[in-house]
């Protein structure tokens, strides 16, 4: 009987491992200036993470607007009147819904003035 228990023991691990916590929101952000190169990054929220260098701050800004960066308010930053149309795109999952938002700003500075850390990667 003891031999049977000894053989069965390796079949059951001594400690159970918790499943990894999946983020509630997984987003791909991109910035494409007309005169410049495409930049893309990944942002996860709840918990904040991904490849975005300001993930926590970006998530904090996106939470009250449910991921729709177009609803963010101007930060008051001063920008030149340079004309370099810059398209910002945010796609992915925000909590339980699929989202796909994009907007064109007159230049990269204006983009950052309206979106803060969201597109600062």
Commentary on this structure:
With 121 residues, the protein is α+β, with helices and mostly antiparallel strands. 19% of the residues lie in helices and 30% in strands. A five-stranded antiparallel beta sheet has the order 3-2-1-4-5. A hairpin with a 2-residue loop joins strand 4 and strand 5. The model has no long low-confidence stretch (mean pLDDT 88).
Task: Give a short summary of the structure.
This protein has 121 residues and is of the alpha+beta class. It is 19% helix and 30% strand. The chain has helices at 2-8, 55-62, 108-115; strands at 25-33, 39-45, 49-50, 86-94, 97-105.
User: What is the helix content?
Assistant: 10-25%
Strand and helix order: HEEEHEEH
Main sheet attributes: strand count, strand direction, barrel closure: 5 strands, antiparallel
DSSP strand tally: 5
Mean pLDDT: 88
Taking Cα atoms only, what radius of gyration do you get, to the nearest Å? 22 Å
């Amino acid at each position: 009987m003891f031999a049977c228990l000894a053989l069965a023991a390796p079949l059951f691990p001594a400690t159970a491992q918790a499943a990894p916590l999946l983020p509630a929101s997984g987003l791909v952000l991109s910035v494409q200036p007309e005169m410049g190169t495409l930049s893309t990054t990944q942002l996860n929220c709840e918990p904040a993470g991904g490849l975005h260098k300001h993930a926590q701050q970006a998530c904090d800004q996106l939470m009250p607007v449910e991921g729709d960066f177009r609803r963010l308010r101007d930060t008051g930053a001063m920008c030149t009147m340079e004309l370099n149309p810059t398209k910002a795109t945010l796609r992915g999952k925000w909590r339980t819904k699929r989202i796909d938002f994009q907007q064109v700003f007159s230049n990269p500075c204006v983009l950052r003035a309206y979106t803060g850390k969201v597109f600062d990667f």
